[in-house]
UniProtKB/TrEMBL annotation:
<keyword id="KW-0436">Ligase</keyword>
<comment type="similarity">
    <text>Belongs to the class-II aminoacyl-tRNA synthetase family.</text>
</comment>
<protein>
    <recommendedName>
        <fullName>Asparagine--tRNA ligase</fullName>
        <ecNumber>6.1.1.22</ecNumber>
    </recommendedName>
</protein>
<dbReference type="InterPro" id="IPR004364">
    <property type="entry name" value="Aa-tRNA-synt_II"/>
</dbReference>
<keyword id="KW-0030">Aminoacyl-tRNA synthetase</keyword>
<dbReference type="GO" id="GO:0004816">
    <property type="term" value="F:asparagine-tRNA ligase activity"/>
</dbReference>
<dbReference type="InterPro" id="IPR004522">
    <property type="entry name" value="Asn-tRNA-ligase"/>
</dbReference>
<keyword id="KW-0648">Protein biosynthesis</keyword>
<dbReference type="InterPro" id="IPR006195">
    <property type="entry name" value="aa-tRNA-synth_II"/>
</dbReference>
<comment type="subunit">
    <text>Homodimer.</text>
</comment>
<keyword id="KW-0963">Cytoplasm</keyword>
<keyword id="KW-0547">Nucleotide-binding</keyword>
<dbReference type="InterPro" id="IPR002312">
    <property type="entry name" value="Asp/Asn-tRNA-synth_IIb"/>
</dbReference>
<keyword id="KW-0067">ATP-binding</keyword>
<feature type="domain" description="Aminoacyl-transfer RNA synthetases class-II family profile">
    <location>
        <begin position="130"/>
        <end position="430"/>
    </location>
</feature>
<dbReference type="InterPro" id="IPR045864">
    <property type="entry name" value="aa-tRNA-synth_II/BPL/LPL"/>
</dbReference>
<dbReference type="InterPro" id="IPR004365">
    <property type="entry name" value="NA-bd_OB_tRNA"/>
</dbReference>
Length: 430
């Protein structure tokens, strides 16, 4: 019976065959312990010389790190293993003997590991991070499908930008200028007017020359847009969504979080509702904390966000930012024209902004005025103006950055470990 490591719990006491790679091994006289992986998980294979004979035992002892094989044996429960099971091996069939595998069980420098990212992904730590990433994606689809959102795919090549073109990658689209998308938001607004509640999930690109632990050049975003949803409605969806993915990871990735040595007590109580602080009050709070480098009208940097987040034990919404530091499409507050109906969700533990969202302008005249103030070319955005000209309704949306969210939930320090093949300021390989 062929199976996978993830499914061995169904075959306790039975003999099965698994296609696997050797992650590590050790031997003790007449017993060899094989640390096996198959992509779905890790399991220990125990090879006893007296049970398998000299020839098979020598095959097992000669295996090198990352050699591939079919391994056959009986599955048995093992209370000493975090996984809970091990295999009593009866046969090893070598497929490929790996020679001089470059990543050995010792400390390697970050640049070396990044140069070998295609192999580093095989390690237990990276495997655990990718499994958590996958669970967040799975839970996201589940949440939005359960709440009657429709998945829509916006284009990656665009002729304009929702936030200006200063941080966009430029390319030629035959005889026109084009850009790699930094957000699908404008297109998702159009889709919301057709389908009500929509969400997208795809890659976005920022030509921002930043080297911080929170930044990638290419990253993935989940971007919902909702017709007839005002600012408060959107905040409720955001906190329910983040609560949902946190609880899904805790439920389905407990082994991975343990492997990453994540303190799950900091995640277990993260359930809606989340605290809020208005931008005005956040500035006052920072001044009280000794941050005299920021004034009203400035955007927050990483130290400011961390100081605010450390005051709470859940993600916190910072709301009502100044109009002048936010994009053109955000709806003004009803009682003030100097702030807009927007919010950034700041994750605890220094992970910074994971969601940015707002109510969108639906008054065509105001929208055109804002576009003029931002010197945006009308011909490039005429289609976007049509959204508010024909049947305008209040609508809101937000974008969640997947990699920052993965970093926070896993406790990983740098986002470069939260995406399979990171694109950084000075890295386009492998």
């Amino acid at each position: 019976m062929k199976t996978t490591i993830a499914e061995v719990h169904q075959y306790v006491g039975q003999e099965v065959t698994i296609g696997a790679w050797l992650a590590n091994k050790r031997s003790s006289g007449k017993i060899a312990f094989l640390q096996l992986r198959d992509g779905t998980g890790f399991i220990q294979g125990v090879v006893v010389k007296n049970d398998v004979g000299d020839e098979q035992f020598q095959v097992a002892k000669s295996l090198t790190q990352e050699s591939s094989m079919y391994v056959t044996g009986v599955i048995q429960e093992d209370s000493r293993s975090p996984f809970g099971y091990e295999m009593l091996v009866s046969k090893v069939e070598l497929i490929n003997q790996a020679i001089d595998y470059p990543i050995t069980p010792k400390n390697h420098g970050t640049e070396f590991l990044m140069d070998h990212r295609h192999l580093w992904l095989r390690s237990r730590r990276q495997h655990a991070i990718m499994k958590v990433r996958n669970e967040i994606i799975r839970a996201s689809y589940e949440f939005f499908n359960n709440n009657n959102f429709v998945k829509v795919d916006p284009p990656i090549l665009t002729g304009s930008s929702p936030e200006g073109t200063t941080e966009l990658f430029h390319t030629k689209y035959f005889d026109e200028d084009a850009y790699l998308s930094q957000s699908g938001q404008l297109y998702m607004e159009a889709a919301a007017m057709a389908l009500g509640k929509v969400f997208s999930f795809g890659p976005t690109f920022r030509a921002e020359k930043s080297k911080t632990r929170r930044h990638l050049i290419e990253f993935w975003m989940i971007e919902p847009e909702m017709a007839f949803y005002q600012f408060e409605d959107s905040l409720k969806v955001q906190e329910e969504y983040v609560s949902y993915i946190i609880q899904s990871v805790l439920k389905n990735c407990s082994l991975e979080l343990e492997r990453l040595e994540r303190d799950t007590s900091k995640l277990e109580n993260i359930k809606a509702p989340f605290p809020r602080i208005m931008y005005d009050d956040a500035i006052k709070f920072l001044h009280e904390q000794g941050f005299n480098d920021i004034e009203w009208g400035d955007d927050f940097g990483a130290p400011h966000e961390t100081a605010i987040a450390d005051h709470f034990d859940k993600p916190v919404f910072i709301t009502h930012y100044p109009t002048k530091i936010k994009p053109f499409y955000m709806q003004p507050a009803p009682d003030r024209d100097d702030v807009v109906l927007c919010a950034d969700m700041i994750a605890p533990e220094g992970y910074g902004e994971i969601i940015g969202g707002s109510e969108r302008i639906h008054d065509p005249e105001l929208l055109k005025q804002r576009m003029d103030e931002h010197n945006l070319p009308l011909e490039a955005y005429e289609w976007y103006l049509d959204i508010s000209k024909y049947g305008a309704v209040p609508h809101s949306g937000f974008g969640l950055g997947l990699e920052r969210t993965v970093a926070w939930i896993t406790g990983v320090e740098h986002v470069r470990e939260t995406i399979p093949f990171p694109r950084l300021l000075n890295r386009l390989y492998p």
